[in-house]
Write a structure and sequence with these properties.
One of its GO terms (biological process) is proteolysis. The chain is an alpha+beta fold and about 850 residues long. The chain is built from 27 helices and 29 strands. The strands form seven sheets. It has an eight-stranded mixed β-sheet, with no helix packed on it. The protein has a five-stranded mixed β-sheet with strand order 16-17-18-20-19, covered by helices on one side. The protein binds zinc ion.
Length: about 850
Amino acid sequence: MRQRRLSANRYRLLRTVEPLHYHLIITPDFSSLRFSGVEQVSLLIKKSTSQITLHSVGLKISKVCLVVNGGNLTPQCTSFDKKLETVTFKFGKRVPAGEAELFLSFFGELNDKMHGFYRTSYEVNGEKKWGGATQFEATDARRAFPCFDEPDRKATFSLELIVPKEKTALSNMPVGSVEEGHDIKMVRYQKTPPMSTYLLAWVVADLECFEALDKNRVPIRVWTTLGKKEQGRFALDTACRVLPYFAEWFGVPYALPKLDMVALPDFAAGAMENWGLVTYRETALLIDRDNSSQAAKQRVAEIVSHELAHQWFGNYVTMKWWTHLWLNEGFASYMGPKAVNHIFPDWDIWTQYVADDYCSALHLDGLKNTHPVEVGVGDPREISEVFDAISYSKGSVINRMLEHYLGEELFRRGLRHYLTRYAYKNAATDDLWKALEEVSGKPIKEIMASFTRQPGYPVLKVQRARGGLRISQERFIFDGSKDKKDPLWKVPFGVAYESDPEPIFFYLDRRSTTIPLELDDGEWVKVNPDQSGFYRVSYAPELMGELKRVVGTQTLSKVDKLELLDDALALAKAGLVKTSDALGLLASYSKEEDFSVWSVLAASLGTLDNLLGREAFYGSFVVFAKEFFTPAARLIGWDKKPGDGHLEVMLRSLLLLNAGWYGDRKITEEAQRRFQEFVAGGTLNPDIRQAVYTLSAENGGGEELEALLKIYDSTDLQEEKMRVLRSLAGFRDGQLLRQVLQFSLSERVRAQDTPILIAGIGSHSVGRSAAWDFVKRNWKKLLGRYEGSGLGLLSMMVEFAAGFSSEEELRDVAAFFRKERRMGLDRTKRQVLESIRSKIKWLRRDRQDIEEWLRSRADYKLVPFGNR
Ligand SMILES: [Zn+2]
């Protein structure tokens, strides 16, 4: 523990020198793809020192001068530390405490790695053009200018950009003045408020925009490359509603004079919340009137809302260190859906949220190799690795738990108190608890620390006892092992039961307790109604039996139904119940109508599909899955019906894709027919396009591949390109899959999209080995492309190996990880190996149980796999 903390601290800069203000002049050169910078940093030297260390990586520093008390000092020695990513200037004599100005000149490359100040390409009138954009979070501001690149080194910034006259140049703040030369211009931006380096941003490219004022008269603009501005209207409209919603909810106005949002053709993550200049992948911001799906619209609304929530949580108040990253991401991931729900109430976003965020958090955090929400991190690779479902989804889910516990009003008042107290400053997790305790008088820290400082979460075991229910807790781990530390959680938990469905709340702060309830025989009991708490529940068989009785009816909420299912399969995997019991529960959902419940059903069956893919009885599983999806898929049909809302539209695609994947002939043939018609020049509704493309690929050959690639090449809508890429991952012929894998590294696929295609092929049992072989063979190339801050992309090409389920594959993956130590991703690697091991264990334990259950279902005729 102690060791860990020491090594984490090694990466922090000393606090003897503090930056107060940066004056930066950046000049990109798009012909040489390089940039130069001139910088003046106003420093407060708190303790006399003879050297100054800043972060800097990949930059050539050409001039350095320190001005103190009117005198100039140049360093006697300048040294770089590659590991710590720093530069140190030694001045040969002591600089007294007080203020000083550090002047620097430097050069860098407009890199192709989507971090630091990087290049992005696009076409203008058929001609390839270059632009430049920044991506600094977490630790890449240091690639664009030497700086104190830590979140709690807030300073003000005055930026000037010298750029070609015809290009648009944007930064966090509005333009203060512009000076025009012959073919260049110098754009000066207004000074920023105190902010963290990772939130500074600029973009220089050929752009156009739409502009509107929100209800508080904040100007909002959505920028795209030329010819695409129409596609920004939906995001602009959404932002105009979300920004004032947050200003009102938080009781704190948006802090900057304007908001720009830019769709960038090359972008490593989904979006970045840079203060006042939010940058996005095109698919996260752009909606095409004729070619975008409802799902794409929802994604845009969600991501825009998430990024705008950051303007408060993250930008206005920033975490002290990356250990508290969840204060940024957990809040944006919780406040985002709040705004979406406010604007699009018919999307039923909170049910989707449970199927999505809540389940992802339970899944990742159910591994032994998870990490606490508050986690000690030091070097950039470790920092990069905490941008995961723990910081985002678990962080968000525990906020939801807290709000349920406190009620919306107290929760909101606590957050307002916190935001006001730490405005333009930094905060740690305990600061938030303190603010919430001050307004509520409740033991927030005691409860929450058990969820943020310990890894994992509990499973509550529930059984009938005299006079009520006996509840006990222990850590849930997917592989069925015990945590030797035997941690305890402080769990506020609700209970609802048949004769009193209104939840009653209790508090579990020890190993086990008995709660008094007047239960009749045969009455159902639901613990954790509406899934407000973050834990799983394991019911004794008779209690489970009663729940099963009502699961096919409308008695339980959708949220309760879907989590019951996710829990059942998780408990089966961990060996706490038989897999046949989970399958029995699953089978009782066949009349379900809700999109979110269906998406958990599909995910659960997908888990089993992957697990059983190479078993001799796989065919009977496929028949079960097919007969499960087919009636619902045929009922909903291909075409939109009058009265279909957002959720029906999304459900249609999900059902058709699954029924087709499990081999419903009628559906795959209809997909192929529609595909041919579209290829021949017909139309195809964007909401079913993914299903049509994917099913055509899954059942197609070289002709379909060629047709899909033609669609890919002929569109400049990234959403459509992504649809094609996802469908390409579905080919089943080995030769075609190899062809697709080669294509993934070709110039036609942007570096941001390659991992999505490879991971897509690796996501199913047909393609996994081919994708894995490809990754191993091309590892040097992939590492070269994505190493550095592309860890998220790099990890996608490793994570899919978690789908393997044999000893031989385990040995192969482990050997590769041992050999390739340079990749970092230490935790991801451990998680992958743990997942494979736990699947092997699961199969060994329940193989026969599953087979017998599948065979015993008289209504599922055994059909050989080849005929499905
Ligand atoms: Zn975020």
